[in-house]
Amino acid sequence: MKAIRTTVAAAALLVFAALGANAQAPAAGRTPTPAPRPAASAPAAGAQGSAIAEGKFAIVDTDAFQDPKDGIARLVSAAAQVDREFKPRRDEIQQLQAKYEALAKQIQDTQKVADQKALAALADQADTLKTDIEQKQAAGQKALDKRVKELTDPIYQDIGQALQAFAKSRGISVVFDISKMQGVVMLVNPAGVDITDAFIADYNQRNPAATASTAPATPGRP
């Protein structure tokens, strides 16, 4: 009789079930929830520009761009769109997982008293179901990665251009992305050089979430 490996199937489900949350961090290699940062002060626009210009360099935390509450609205909107589109896939896998777990429990509870041929048939059914779950999980991950790229690549390209213009207009020569330099840079007084919050506010004002890229939606099911 084929072995029932509930943990393998459960792991396959959990990876894909988490995609909805991960989608809210659309680009690969990016962390959805940024590490805590000291809050940047919010002086008047002119004063802030002058303070930053004195140093000719600044820091930005690009991980914060994806924060659901305080991040860039277009990225947050794109993440929500992906989550909606892929909910049918997640729901389907969860339903299949429930069936698999019920079969596994039935086999375990009756293995000492049930007919061995009947148990073997149930085991075959469970193995087939497990394979189906894993295939759907893999296909879902691939489709999700593609969809996230479709929606967020144009936004990130625009953000890069906007950040360059934002820094240039304030006399900043160099901007360091501290999300990529953890453990390398030690900040003594980040409030004077951290432009993350100011840039996010400026970008959101100029680019409301409604202007987010809307590539053709990928169907929730293959």
> Average pLDDT, to the nearest integer?
77
The rough form would be described as: elongated
Fraction in helix: 55-70%
SSE order in H/E notation?
HHHEHHEH
Helix count, per DSSP?
6
- Strand percentage lies at under 5%
Low-confidence stretches: 1-53, 211-222
SSE blueprint and pairings:
Elements: H1 6-17, H2 19-23, H3 45-55, E1 57-60, H4 73-110, H5 116-169, E2 174-177, H6 196-206
Parallel strand pairs: 1-2
Helix pairs in contact: 1-4, 1-5, 4-5
Describe it for me?
With 222 residues, the chain is mainly alpha-helical. The chain has one domain (6-211). It is built from six helices and two strands; from the N terminus they run H-H-H-E-H-H-E-H. The chain has helices spanning 6-17, 19-23, 45-55, 73-110, 116-169, 196-206, and strands at 57-60, 174-177. Helix 1 (6-17) packs antiparallel against helix 4 (73-110) and helix 1 (6-17) packs parallel to helix 5. It starts with 5 loop residues before the first helix and ends in a 16-residue tail after the last helix. Mean pLDDT is 77; it is low at 1-53 and 211-222.
